[in-house]
Amino acid sequence: MTEATEIAVIPGDGIGQEVVPAAVEVLEAVGDYAFTEAEAGDATLDETGEALPAETYDLAATADATLFGAAGESAADVILPLREAVGSFVNIRPARAYPGVDALRPETDLVFLRENTEGVYAGHEDRLTDDVSTLTRVVTESASRRLGAYACEYVQERPEHDGFTVAHKANVMRETDGLFRDTVLEEAERAGVDADTVLMDAFATRVCLDPEQFDVVVCPNLAGDVLSDLAAGLVGGLGLLPSANVGAERGLFEPVHGTAPDIAGEGVANPSATILSAAMLVESLGDDDAGAQIRTAVESVLSDGPRTPDLGGEATTREVTDAVLERL
Ligand code: ATP
Ligand code: MG
């Protein structure tokens, strides 16, 4: 008897409680997976005194893959350790527009490869005096090299083979972003991959004016976080963007959005981002057919099916999920 693939499910707070169960229903429809649910986030902190109980961390560290929703105020104490639990060094954030969905820039089709272990999220923040606070930004050659090598493999596996762009701010942060940019470029040269660079502020303007000039964008941690949210605005909102935190042996899959406190509990969150994250999850397990099936169903619903209010419709999370399940 072979053991079923184990998927850890951590809905977290806010709309995580609504969109993660929707994605689990979709996964149940396409494959034979064993789900184990675990707690994390603000509600868990209130109940247990810990935002991320050891059982949850251990589950993510051992399961074949993890599906995560969002955490509220405690996000930094939940998602950063969870990314570490799966050994993730890169966060893949595809941002593309879908036919039929109103988008500021319908031609947008980007993938952000965000460094996932350091930068300003390395946690060295201090309050020195009443007046002065500081933050130490950490960039290492080893993490930059690992990300650069991954970016090369990533673009080489894509049929288009278009290379990538490194977004940085090395004109100001000469040491940290200089090291990041130069190391990623070295990996590109070693692999024979085309790579160019762009200042991250210039990128923000240029991607709004003409997103087609970019394809795969390799970013330091904070820049990847901010610029992918910006790209969400170009394609129709955060309800559409999935992400994959990739490690060497396992991954953690989550929507780019957070807990959406303004709509949480109303049953109207758009489940597409989390269902598309589930597609990335099954693909990471080698189930490319299941991934393609999920994507096709989501795309079909986005083009002419029921829509949640963020996309201008009146449908509920339940109705959109049912439509995806029907079209699988
Ligand atoms: P957090 O601190 O948890 O990130 P936030 O207030 O930044 O909370 P986000 O979840 O990042 O909220 O969402 C930003 C905006 O996008 C909110 O107005 C929210 O309602 C909307 N939004 C995010 N995700 C979705 C979704 N899946 N469906 C519909 N609207 C969404
Ligand atoms: Mg947010």
Automatic annotation (TrEMBL):
MF (Gene Ontology): oxidoreductase activity
SMART domains per record: Iso_dh (SM01329)
Domain Isopropylmalate dehydrogenase-like, residue spans: 6-324
Keyword hit for Signal: no
UniProt keyword terms in alphabetical order: Oxidoreductase
Family: Belongs to the isocitrate and isopropylmalate dehydrogenases family.
Name of the protein: Isocitrate/isopropylmalate dehydrogenase family protein
Organism: Halobaculum marinum
